[in-house]
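pasting input
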Amino acid sequence: MDSAFSTADLSAIWLTIKLATVVTVILLLIGTPIAWWLARTRCWWKGPVGAVVALPIVLPPTVIGFYLLVAMGPGGPLGQFTQALGIGLLPFTFAGLVVASVFYSLPFVVQPLQNAFEGIPERALETAATLRASALDTFFSVALPLAKPGFLTASVLGFAHTVGEFGVVLMIGGNIPDQTRVVSVQIYDHVEAMQYTSAHWLSAAMVIFAFVALLLLYTFNPTGRRK
Amino acid sequence: MIHARFSLVYPGFALNADIQLPARGITALFGPSGSGKTTLLRFIAGLERAAGGLLRVHDEVWQDGAKFLPVHRRRMGYVFQEASLFPHLSVRRNLEYGWQRIPAAERKVQLEQAVELLGLNKLIDRNDTASLSGGERQRVAIARALLTSPRLLLMDEPLSSLDTASKQEILPYLERLHRELDIPVLYVSHALDEVARLADHLVLLEQGCVIASGALNDTLSRLDLPTAHLDDAGAVIAAKVAMHDEAYHLSRLDFSGGSLWVSKIERAAGEMVRARVLARDVSIATASPHGSSISNILAARVAEIQDEGPGRVNVRLTVGDENVLLSRITRRSRDQLGLKVGMEVFAQVKSVALTA
């Protein structure tokens, strides 16, 4: 073997990074309003919505993958919607993988953000209002800066969790090089083909990545909340 | 004029208020904890919603049946019990927060002016607000509220979370604000000494109801109100600094009805000060006393006598045409002196607390 990683391995690594980055950005955009709403609402929908967001934590990835596959298929509501838009069908495409990963990693972004928002004292928001800041202005000038540690946690967890997914990818994306073959699937292929050395290299890289990501999180993110 | 009318019902607590407040000077909302004074203030700020409430400030309607002006559209400043500085902003950015958010044409109070008024020169370039002392933080919060050029400043017990030293540090700034800025202030407090020192107008609240509202001294000297039963009940006399006696280190304060000697104060002759005389520091004599160590003896007339518990009475004395003193004496002294309303007596003042 010439190098630790084959071309196929490198392409899987690149695809994984691309997927995790896109998914993290989308999750921060949609997770922030959901988390803000969950943190501040007194509406009775809070419980059901919170539970739905948290479902991927407890459900087997195959179950999520299965339902998403059905929903995105030709007869499913998502599938009909994407066909009507002229995009075609999402299963076995990179876009389909992105949609599935967004669902799958949602709680890992929403929950840290929700905790961070809940930690912001009501008084800080009231103070901003008495200083002529509208609700939106208060959100950007007070709530976001005060929730910064939560955003760091949410980004790292969202990214790392997307990198680590396997079951949902297999259900939705299959195993298409440069399209849906991410690192976890590539490792599976290596093992199936009895290529244990290659599997070792990629697996070790995953372990190191996961360790470094979590180390960064625990080192640089103060757990004590600001008063 | 500020007109507030609203009622709120919470479990175990109801607030019914219909009050007109002067739109100038400092109006104190005074009452024990749970009397609803903070809720009243939060209603005026829009932080608390009461359906069907009415609120008119100067010529603007802030709330009526059809309208609810959101908090950030009300031209008021609010100072909370705790300074509530934004921890992610420097002192300067905290000060500028509200200032930046009002139209340039409405900026009547400028940054330099607020910094000067509250003595923030040494603090403005500090980055970490957490390193400020409690008193310093509250001064920044007051300046921050002033910088929105409010038409009404609401202060919710701004000194109550501070220690005595910090309180003494801030009070002169509040007095200065009172003298130099023409911004009406609603000041919530449960400390009578603060109220006596700062307020022009006094509103008394008890269990969610307004039980009295009037000029400070008229209200403080009423014997039928709960303030008369407080340990530090007393009257306030507005007096002019007449002269200083350097040899004895004393100053003389004149007012219609007499004069008071006090420990020398650092104020120029001719300046007005407030002298607060506690009821427990005033004793009564029917003949002009001689050979007394008490140098402040004022001719007075008994205006009212009310029982104060089983053993004591409160006496309201008029001194001159317009000034009033309260005196708390024993019931036995009242009977031995044969005190009756209308009697001419001498009030002996043991101690005078001076404020601005």
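fyi Chain A touches chain B at residues 123-124, 126-135, 137, 141-142, 145-146, 148, 226-227 (CB under 8 Å).
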